[in-house]
Amino acid sequence: MIRAIVLFIILGLGLFVGSEYSGQQGYVLISIANKTIEMSVTTLVIMVVGLLIAIFALEFIVKKVLSSTFKTFNWFTIRKIRRSRRLTNEGIIKLIEGDFKQAEKKVIRWAKHHDNPLLCYLMASEAADNLGNIKKRDHYLALANEQNHAKLAVELTRAKQQVNDGHISLGLKTLQSLQPDAPNNPILLNLLKRCYITLHRWQPLIEILPKLRKFNHLTEAENRELLETAHVGVLADIAKRNNSHDLIEHWETLNRHDKKNAVITAAVARHLLNVSEGKEALPFITRVMKSSPSTQLYMLIAEVPQVHQQDAKKLLLRVLAKNAHNAEAHSAIAKLYEYQNNWSDAQFHLEQALSIRTSIADYSRLSEVLAQQNKTQAAQDVSRKALSLLPE
């Protein structure tokens, strides 16, 4: 548009000058070295306009040629990208279907022409890993690592493959290198969870559970189960030191919610029974039961060393004095009477416990207590009752 305006202006000026100086064209003399060119002003104007038109026409032609060349090149490039995308999509489907050989072939064939080669190399690595070709798998990961912004995706893929192959320690090392940059990554956290469980790294597992729960990667039930497993594991490691003080000190560091967890407190009490001759077990159980009584703790009371059994019996009698319908207290004190061969009292408390709730274990114990008193028929009847409660 601008070029056309310029041409019209020049033509207009030419017409104006031509009409003004009609019959007085004058002349133009151009001297170059030994040559001279002489022409009228009108001729010079016409030549300039013609030259401009020729330049503009040449520019238009050159642009058209370059544009056509670019479009042709771009058409071929887009065609390659589209074909690469199609093959990659087909390869991903094959990977999901389990046809790993075809998946690898399709995603890698036109990977260089894909607009995101990283995806192709990662899929090829997964396919090669499933085919058991470690050399190819690592080669594809190396190619993927050459792409921009590839570190997280590549290392997560590498870690997952290492963990799946059973190289847990190696996978953990890879994951720990990513933690500073991606502390809340869901795949990283779940892989860390698998590593910690397999390697019995209980304390680090406890530390990442709040994040897994926060980002909805664990249900409430799963979180509770893992938390209990981890705490029990930590306590087992501490118990190896054979020091009751360390066990109690660790329990004191737990938060209020964990201190009320029956599985965790029972684990502490169980380990206390097995270290330092069980001296700290009963005081610990007595203290915990004031705020968080549980079935496990009642049964552990009956397991205290013989020297503390009289104190344990007094504790249970106090509990029953406050609540005669405490089935677990009846069952626990019956166990103490069994240790003392006091069969009649053991029978009484077992019958009291079973009148409140059903327990196959207590029925079995009652059958044994009756047999010890030569009450054969009654023992057989109770034994049949216990057998009837067993799941088919």
Automatic annotation (TrEMBL):
Looking up InterPro entries in the UniProt record yields:
Heme_biosyn_assoc_TPR_pro (IPR005254), HemY_N (IPR010817), TPR-like_helical_dom_sf (IPR011990)
Residue ranges spanning the membrane: these are: 43-62
- Describe its membrane topology: Multi-pass membrane protein
Cellular compartments annotated: Cell inner membrane
Question: What's this protein's name?
Answer: Putative protoheme IX biogenesis protein
Which coarse location class describes where this protein primarily resides? Answer: membrane
One Gene Ontology BP term is:
heme metabolic process
The source organism is Vibrio palustris
Entry GO terms, CC:
plasma membrane
Task of the protein: Involved in a late step of protoheme IX synthesis.
